[in-house]
Amino acid sequence: MPHNLKKVRAKIGKIEKGGEVLKLGQHETRAENSSKNETFAGINDEAQKPGMVGRTNEDISIIPIVGLGGLGKTTLAESVLADKKVNVFDSQAWVHVSKVFDLKKIGSAILKSINSSINLDNCALQFMQDNLKRELASSIRYLIVLDEFWEEDAEKLEKLKQMLQHGRKGSRIILTTRNQSVVAKLSTGVLAHQRKIRPVPESDQIKLGVLSPDECWEVIKQTAFGSDDDQSGLEEIGRQIAEKCGGVPLVANALGQVMSELRTVEAWEKIKDTKINFGSRYYQDTLERLMLSYYYMKLDFKMCFTYLAAFPKGFVVDDV
Questions:
Q1: Which residues contact 143 (CB under 8 A, 6 or more apart)?
Q2: Are strands 171-177 and 197-199 parallel, antiparallel or unpaired?
Q3: Exposure check for the chain: N or C terminus, fewer CB within 10 A?
Q4: Residue 85 belongs to domain spanning
Q5: How far apart are the first and last CA of the chain?
Q6: pTM for this one?
Q7: 200 and 243 together in one domain
Q8: Are residues 40 and 185 in the same domain?
Q9: Ranges for the NB-ARC domain (predicted)?
Q10: What angle do CA 163, 166, 168 make, to 5 degrees?
Q11: Residue finishing a domain among 207, 230, 261
Q12: How many domains in the chain?
C-alpha cells in the first residue's frame, strides 16, 4: 500500500548528532498544504535506516532520491528540508537544477541562502566560489537539496563536489534524479575516492517505485470521496480509471481531484472512455498522463493552469 506523507515523515530517517538520534516530526510544508492525500510510492521499512540521511564517518554524504517523474521525489525532499526539528544543520538551501547544469547558478543559490548580504549581481564564477568557500569553511554544517538533477558529465560533477567540499563533517546533500546513472557518476572522481564527498551506499539510497492499479485506486478514492461518502456504483469504474495512471501517484491524485467534482456514473464513464495515447508506462512523460485530468478540469482552473504554464519549471513566484 502507498505510504502517505505523515507515515513517510515518521519513517524517513534519523539524524545522528553527538550520539543522539533525532526523529523527524510533523510540520506544515508546501507539499502538505497542497493536498491532504499526498502519496509516496516505493518506500519501505528500509527508510528507517540512519543511512537515508547520511553516515557520520564520511565528511559529506550525498543522499540520492531516485525515481520516475511524478513519484514524489521533490515532495519527499521538501518535507525533510522544511522540518523544523532538523535543527542540527547551520544552513539549509534548495536549488532547482534542471537539465541545464549551471555551476554558477547552483553556487549562487546556495550562497544566498547562507549569506544574503553578499552582492552577486553580475559577479564572476570565481568570485562566487571564493565567497562560498569562505562561508562553508567557517564551521558550517549544511543541508542542501539539489532538485531535478540530470547532469552526468564527470568533469562537471567533480567541479560541483569541489565547490561543496568545504562544509563541516556531517553536512548532507539530498539529490533528486530520475537516473541511477547520475548517482553512479557521482560515486567516481578524486573526492569520492577520498571519501570527502560521495553518495551513501546503495542500500541507503532512496528509490521510489510505481504504484499498482489497486494502489492508484486507493489514492484516487482518498481524494475523490469523504469518509462517509457512498461509493456504490463508482468503484468498478474508478478502478478502470486507475489503470490509466501508469502507476504514477501524481496522476492518480490529479485524477482524484477532478473526479471528486464529477461523482456520477456518467461522468466517470466518460473519463474512463477518453482515449489518450500514454505510450510506455515507464518512459512516457508524466505530463501526457496528466492531460486526462486537464480535459475534465473546471474552466477557471484551466485558465489558471494555462497562465502558470507560461512560467518555466522551477520559477519562483513572489508572494503578492
A1: 80, 81, 86, 89, 91, 92, 93, 171, 172, 174
A2: unpaired
A3: C
A4: 3-207
A5: 39
A6: 0.71
A7: no
A8: yes
A9: 57-228
A10: 145
A11: 207
A12: 2
